[in-house]
Amino acid sequence: MAWLIILLLLSLRLTRAEFPEISNKSKPDLEEGLLHLLLRLRQEEFFDTLLIYGKDCVFHQLTKSLELSTVLVSSGSTNFDWNFSSLTLILSCRLEAEKEMTYRTLMKLQRNRHLIYINKDIQAKSVCDLYAKKEQHNIAFVKKDFIQSKIITACRCFQEPNFQEVSLQESYPIYIENFHDIHRQPLRIMTDLVAPRSMVYQDPKTGQTKMIGYVANLINNFAHKINASLEVKSLSSNESFRNIIKWIKADQIDMAMTLEASVHATNFDTASYPYVLTSYCLMLPVPAKVPYNLVYAVIVDHLVLGILVLLFVVLSLLLIYSKNMSWQGLSLADVLLNDVSLRGILGQSFPFPSNPSKQLRLIFIILCFASVMLTTMYEAYLQSFFTHPPSEAYIRSFEDINEFHQMIAITTFKMNELNNINNRHFKTISKDNLKIFENWHDYLDLRNAFNRSYGYLVTEDRWNTYAEQQKNFKDTLFYFSKDLCFSRLLFLNIPLRRHLPYRHLFEEHMLRQHEVGLVSFWKSRSFFDMVRLDITTLEDLSRPKPYEPSLLLLDVSWIMKLYLAAMVVSIVCFILEILSKGREWGFWKYIKDFVGN
Ligand SMILES: *[C@@H]1O[C@H](CO)[C@@H](O)[C@H](O)[C@H]1NC(C)=O
Ligand SMILES: *[C@@H]1O[C@H](CO)[C@@H](O)[C@H](O)[C@H]1NC(C)=O
Ligand SMILES: *[C@@H]1O[C@H](CO)[C@@H](O)[C@H](O)[C@H]1NC(C)=O
Ligand SMILES: *[C@@H]1O[C@H](CO)[C@@H](O)[C@H](O)[C@H]1NC(C)=O
Ligand SMILES: *[C@@H]1O[C@H](CO)[C@@H](O)[C@H](O)[C@H]1NC(C)=O
């Protein structure tokens, strides 16, 4: 920056030094006049580079006195895209000295100030028409009689006549922003009517068709700002989003009232500055509740059961040892079928020996404590799970999708896009788990209906309205999986025609709307706008049952059956015991006496 200022001061000094030597020859006179003009232009808007089109003219001599970096294009075209500073003033030695073909250079020619030296006698109107046809509007020119007349002619759009003559002595600006008011010129718009970005409705008062939504509002406000009229066409249902991009690329429409992701773009010629930053993830159906009859299985976890058995064995061993303070009489049956320990752990009463030793008392305390903890824990689990059963497992990774056979709905367009950018997450999903929709309307209909047969791809932005809608449901149907994102940093931009002359105004407008918080305000209102326009309903799509099924005896029947089986086994054991040991115990004699009496 510092050397630029020094250069500027240097050139100012040079000019001042040169002015006194008023030469008699016409050529140096012209040079001085133009130098003066360039310095004035530089004061109006800074430039640090000169781009000179054409051969051998008065501008070439000026570069010596200005000492700026200069690009000379005598042939009229450069075969590379504009890759020098944007702070460039373009000078042409004659009409149409530039014959540029590359897009980006043409875009820059549109924006940068352009001064032409015209040697012939030609009507100002036709010069401006010529450049207006090329959509270059920042044009001014001087004629060879400049030194006598001191007149600069600047082209003006949307005015009659379409040029203005500015004298070098006047302080009136030579270049102006032509597009602050485009006098109701049409802005050709195409909309895909994807809620909540753009939605159509009829104004109840005037009967006019209007657009609303956070993209539509942006464009409406812009049209209002530059005094443009809107010419909106909407995509018919059999056309795809690709058509919009095709028309934009073919310069058939000026702007699209939609958002395009720029992940797969090779260049950004038809894209605006990013409007929305979002992520692109999966919304998946919330897993179903565990049925009541499986709640028992849920609370008996393998690990916990293992720990309980271990505790039981340890307590049995301690009980046996502390009875006599020796391992005498230790047997496997005593350890595994220790009735004191078993009853203790299950929270039942058990015999408490009279005069127990200190150690034994301590172990009984541990046993009682364990029994209280275990029974209350299981009681609490069981009762809370019976009132509110837990969900089945959630999908946490892309591999889980294949494992759980979760179907994912997708449109052909999105699938090709994800394949083209070689998305590694997308590749992990097996083709069998994809349901491909040719028509994106079918896809949107399913997603909007919260159809739980599939998981869906959704931007976080759109998800927010679904989340809002779900708040009215009795049961949550979908969840937004932040772990399952195809892209976490997705820039969405508004497709614009390549040579839109007011692109810079639009982008500035976009940033302003963000700055004052309008965009987030519109987004937060999206869902209510959708409800107001009947695009979505407040209806509960979770289809709640009129009554929740209560816990039935049937649900715990297998517990009962287990209980019954255990009873039968113990009765059989008892009978077998009586049959084999009955004589020893004098059981039969007792029965005989009893019956005999
Ligand atoms: C300019 O040249 C003319 C003749 O060509 C001469 O009469 C006149 O005095 C000159 N003027 C100056 C300022 O030198
Ligand atoms: C400009 O771009 C062209 C290719 O597009 C390249 O050959 C050239 O070196 C670049 N010039 C500068 C100054 O970067
Ligand atoms: C918008 O353009 C129309 C048509 O040229 C013009 O009459 C009107 O004054 C303009 N509005 C504003 C606010 O400049
Ligand atoms: C869409 O339908 C219209 C008639 O409704 C038809 O004219 C047009 O050709 C169709 N476009 C495509 C791409 O099928
Ligand atoms: C969800 O979609 C599937 C397949 O498209 C369909 O068979 C099913 O009836 C839909 N479910 C609901 C609740 O509409």
UniProtKB/TrEMBL annotation:
<keyword id="KW-1003">Cell membrane</keyword>
<keyword id="KW-0472">Membrane</keyword>
<keyword id="KW-1133">Transmembrane helix</keyword>
<feature type="transmembrane region" description="Helical">
    <location>
        <begin position="362"/>
        <end position="381"/>
    </location>
</feature>
<feature type="transmembrane region" description="Helical">
    <location>
        <begin position="294"/>
        <end position="321"/>
    </location>
</feature>
<feature type="signal peptide">
    <location>
        <begin position="1"/>
        <end position="17"/>
    </location>
</feature>
<dbReference type="GO" id="GO:0005886">
    <property type="term" value="C:plasma membrane"/>
</dbReference>
<dbReference type="InterPro" id="IPR052192">
    <property type="entry name" value="Insect_Ionotropic_Sensory_Rcpt"/>
</dbReference>
<feature type="transmembrane region" description="Helical">
    <location>
        <begin position="558"/>
        <end position="579"/>
    </location>
</feature>
<keyword id="KW-0675">Receptor</keyword>
<keyword id="KW-0325">Glycoprotein</keyword>
<protein>
    <submittedName>
        <fullName>Uncharacterized protein</fullName>
    </submittedName>
</protein>
<keyword id="KW-0732">Signal</keyword>
<keyword id="KW-0812">Transmembrane</keyword>
